[in-house]
Design brief:
- Strand 1 and strand 2 form a beta hairpin.
- It is built from 3 helices and 5 strands, in the order αββαβαββ.
- It is of the alpha+beta class.
- 29% of the residues lie in helices and 24% in strands.
- It has a 5-stranded mixed β-sheet.
- The radius of gyration is 15 Å and the shape is globular.
- The chain has helices spanning 4-11, 66-88, 113-128, and strands at residues 29-32, 35-41, 94-105, 135-141, 150-158.
- It starts with a helix and ends with a strand.
- Helix 2 packs across helix 3.
Length: 160
């Protein structure tokens, strides 16, 4: 039986994927009391990164555009929800998205990290409405695991 949140994802055209396999020694999500801590999620699709590299707005060779990276941040947030479901079973138990932290592999001088991570934030707003409003950080970094352009981690409050 599909819950309200998974039905909303379907309505928006998304399919909740299987939990992405960790790329090192960690678990995708940890449940502690009424909080779920989600490890950084890459924009994996069917076990692979659709794009690798750094984000920039100068149009340089091999750069990923901020618009493309924004879409990848949505994928990261979707993957984070899959990790949450793996530890709580039912996404309808989510009471609040508390915090989102986004990392953007950035070319020097690129300062559009907030616009990139808006992809994750807007996605969560579309899915959860006011429950999806959250505190957030958007950080530029030199590189991310496996050459990913974007990584997103989250903290959520659930009904206990």
């Amino acid at each position: 039986m599909t819950g309200r949140i998974e039905a909303r994802l379907t309505e928006l055209g998304y399919v909740l994927p299987q939990v992405a396999a960790p790329v090192a020694a960690y678990v995708p999500a940890v449940l502690d009391g009424d909080r779920v801590y989600v490890s950084g999620q890459l924009p994996m699709v069917d076990g692979a990164l659709p794009l690798t590299g750094r984000v920039g707005s100068g149009g340089g060779e091999g750069l990923i555009s901020p618009a493309e990276a924004n879409g990848l941040a949505r994928v990261c947030a979707l993957n984070a929800l899959a990790a949450v479901r793996s530890v709580i079973g039912d996404l309808d138990q989510i009471r609040r998205i508390v915090k989102v932290v986004g990392f953007v592999a950035s070319e020097p001088g690129f300062t559009g990290q907030p616009l990139v991570i808006n992809g994750a934030s807007e996605f969560l707003g579309e899915v959860f409405g006011p429950v999806g409003q959250h505190a957030r950080s958007a950080v530029g970094v030199v590189a991310l695991p496996l050459g990913a352009p974007v990584e997103v981690e989250m903290v959520l409050a659930i009904n206990s």
